[in-house]
């Protein structure tokens, strides 16, 4: 499903590599017919200097942690929909 992350132009190029000549619009139309929808990625604000300092401090405080220390940490990712 790696192809789901490709842009229309990248998909067009892949088709052309195997000898199929299509235009960008055709690729978009076929994807739409298959139920896919265009979604523009949300812009996230850049890190402020304060964020950078806080992250650096956090990392320095844990610089000497062992693998066992890290095994006790639960990481979670934040997703925005």
- Rg from C-alpha positions? 21 Å
Shape: elongated
Indicate the percent of residues in helices: 40-55%
Largest sheet, strands/sense/barrel: none
How many E strands? Answer: 0
Low-confidence stretches: none
Look at the structure and give the mean pLDDT. Answer: 83
Task: Tell me the β content.
Answer: under 5%
Individual helix count = 4
Strand and helix order: HHHH
Protein name: Transposase Tc1-like domain-containing protein
Organism: Xiphophorus maculatus (Southern platyfish)
GO molecular function: DNA binding
InterPro entries: RNaseH_sf, Transposase_Tc1-like
Strand and helix layout:
Layout: H1 8-17, H2 24-33, H3 49-61, H4 67-71
Describe the structure.
By secondary structure, the chain is mainly alpha-helical. The protein has a domain at 2-33. The protein contains four helices and no strands. Helix 1 (8-17) crosses helix 2. The chain is elongated, with a radius of gyration of 21 Å. The model has no long low-confidence stretch (mean pLDDT 83).
